[in-house]
Amino acid sequence: MVAPAADFLAILRALAAHRVDHIVVGGVCAVLHGAPVTTFDLDLVHNREPENLHRLARALADLGAYYRGRGEQRLVPEESALAGPGHHLLMTQSGPLDLLGTLGAGHGFDALVGHTKVVEVSGIAVEILDLPTLIRVKEETSREKDLLSLQILRRLLQEGGGR
Amino acid sequence: MEQTRDHRWVEGAPEGESAPEYDEDGIDLTLLRWMVSLTPTERLQVLQSNVASLQRLLDGRTRG
Predict the structure, then answer these.
(1) How far apart are CA B64 and CA B58, in angstroms?
(2) What would the mean pLDDT of A33-54 be, rounded to a whole number?
(3) How many A-B residue pairs are in contact by the CB < 8 A criterion?
(4) What is the chain B residue with the closest CA to A121?
(5) Domains in chain A and their CATH numbers?
(6) Are A114 and A106 in contact (CB under 8 A)?
(7) Nearest in space to A4 (alpha carbons), one of A76, A78, A66, A75
(8) Number of H helices and number of E strands within chain A?
(9) What is the pTM of this model?
(10) Given this model, what pLDDT does residue B7 score?
């Protein structure tokens, strides 16, 4: 099966159209700060308030979202599941989308929302984790796969990126 | 000045004004500074273009 080509902007547009409260984290966040890295999915932490989950569910329906890695099964994410702190690894018609109930050592939307900045991307206001917090969260998890990007992000901070 | 992999200097840059291409961890500073110089919209376009390019390579490999 050929995966749909990633179109991060299309996913961000769908989320904006449904006024979904979320914070972009991970590789796309790093790129929007100016990090020269590549990623194949869009990671975001969503607000788990019921009203926002309704809006998120509608956006996911528009995007044709279903769980990745379940073979031919097209299991659609349910609002009740999205209310939890876990991670939801989804495929959409615009590519992979990872919804994270919490990030790093259990940081949810409410804990992160004071550590963000808003950037304009093709006319859309996109809320992204600020660079020092992105680094701190990666340091908390300290996985092998994060080590290279951590070095890049630290250098980016020294170079004045993320302002 | 001796050039090493980690501290190469920009080819053709005027002597005394050149900047290192890599930092001590091997981070490519030319790419990093180029990305920082772009707007967020342009940065996302670069990422999108890179992903599309890699996907074309993968698709070609699958068919080949």
Answers:
(1) 10
(2) 96
(3) 72
(4) B41
(5) 9-145 (3.30.460)
(6) no
(7) A66
(8) 7, 7
(9) 0.86
(10) 41
CA end-to-end distance (rounded Å), chain B = 46
Predicted confidence (pLDDT) at residue A29 exceeds the cutoff of 70: yes
Query: Which helix (H) or strand (E) is A147 found in, with range?
Result: helix A144-158
Query: Percentage of chain B with pLDDT > 90?
Result: 31
**Chain A nearest CA to B17, separation (Å):** 18
Q: Quick one: average pLDDT of B14-35?
A: 79
Ramachandran angles phi, psi of B38, nearest 5°: -85, 165
> Is any Cβ of chain B less than 8 angstroms from the Cβ of A122?
yes
- At B52, give phi and psi (nearest 5°): -65, -40
What is the interface pTM, i.e. ipTM, of the complex? Answer: 0.82
Report the candidate in A142, A143, A138 with the shortest Cα–Cα distance to residue A156: A138
Residue corresponding to tokens 């980016």: A156
Higher pLDDT, B47 or A163: B47
